[in-house]
Amino acid sequence: MARLEVDAVTKIFGASVRAVDGLSFAVADREFVFLLGPSGAGKTTTLRMIAGLEQPSDGRVLIDGRDMTWAAPRDRNVAMVYDRNSLYPHLSAYENMAYPLRLRRTPGAELDARVKRVAEILRIGELLDRAPRQLSGGQQQRVAIGRMLVRDAGLYLMDEPISHLDAKLRSHMRLEFKKLQSEFAATILYVSHDQLEAMTMADRIIVVDHGAIQQIGAPREIFQRPANRFVAGFVGEPAMNFLACEVRADGGKIAAAGDGFSLPLCAEHAAALSAVARTPKAFEIGLRPQHLAIAGNGAEDGDERESGIGGTIYAVETLGSATVFDVSVGQTVIRVQANQDALPNRAFRINDPVRIRVDTRRLHLFDRESGRAAIHPSLSRESGRLAVLGA
Ligand SMILES: Nc1ncnc2c1ncn2[C@@H]1O[C@H](COP(=O)(O)OP(=O)(O)O)[C@@H](O)[C@H]1O
Ligand SMILES: [Mg+2]
């Protein structure tokens, strides 16, 4: 159990590489927090400064309210696991895992129980007698994770610990980490570039890019109300679609209009943007593939023509439970994901003219210059749906 505060921490390598740029955040006791961002964002450097393996150029690291910025790693009660760990080659998997407990003179029965419990979770119970060279890469990594987890540390730091495991094992580990965290009442700061890991495990996500925080929030909040275009594009699979547009008054209605389309905004969005519409400004529409539907462009395919975007089929991908349509719209490709039960009752072929149906209450709008979100999906939709669910 521990509480972590990172206060305006900066790390500059050499003369000019600003790896971490004034980062501030807190992790509460027993909280599971993710640092999520692309490669090179400064995630590993941040973890290493918290663990005491790297010294900040500026700022402070506090653990349980005590300034630990300059403390030695062993005085911080922090356990860390890396993306690729090395084991002691002459020790069995069991002894590798038991090692941190032996160092702390943990009583035999407790040591044995902790190692076995963690081994069971990691599905390496049958491998405990083996030496590292008798284990596959994925098995070695699980032993390394185990060696970290057996420790009764205040704060666990995990740097992409499962990114090299195969897909099935990753999905098992996602569940188990979550269970383990509540069972051990652990405080965890977990680094990943994989938004799915963050979405499924985190209490809160800190999205970072270029050493700086882009947004902090619960997974739902990050997904539903991304603060800027970077977060919107980084979180969600398939990724959000973006279309350049202007917001302007169009035949008495306020619309987001771009290359070959014009989407009238819902009442709530129109009201929020009425001032903008008088002096047109560059925006980007953001549309989640899951919130779009596809239809033919004939009259029999529905009468909501005005809230659609016309295009042609570029590619069709079948994912089993869903189908993803890539639709060419002007110079861009828009992805539409339809669940199997929501597929239109006809086949689409490459180059077929189609219409993308847009529920305009669900659109995001980003300022093209700053990237900041100007409009999130309309809340009235959410409340409307809750009312229906409650009925
Ligand atoms: N020891 C170092 N010397 C110089 N530059 C470094 C060093 N470690 C990391 N960097 C640079 O700092 C930036 C952030 O790296 P890192 O923290 O490893 O990112 P991430 O873990 O998010 O991929 C990168 O541009 C990287 O090249
Ligand atoms: Mg890294």
Automatic annotation (TrEMBL):
InterPro entries: AAA+_ATPase, ABC_transporter-like_ATP-bd, ABC_transporter-like_CS, ABC_transpr_MalK-like, ABC_transpr_MalK/UgpC-like, Mo/tungstate-bd_C_term_dom, NA-bd_OB-fold, P-loop_NTPase. Gene3D superfamilies: 2.40.50.100, Nucleic acid-binding proteins, P-loop containing nucleotide triphosphate hydrolases. Transmembrane segments: none annotated. GO terms for biological process: carbohydrate transport. GO terms for cellular component: ATP-binding cassette (ABC) transporter complex, substrate-binding subunit-containing. Coiled coil: none annotated. One of its GO terms (molecular function) is ATP binding. Signal peptide: none annotated. It holds the Pfam family ABC_tran. It is a peripheral membrane protein. This is Carbohydrate ABC transporter ATP-binding protein (CUT1 family). It comes from Roseiarcus fermentans. The lineage of its organism: Bacteria, Pseudomonadati, Pseudomonadota, Alphaproteobacteria, Hyphomicrobiales.
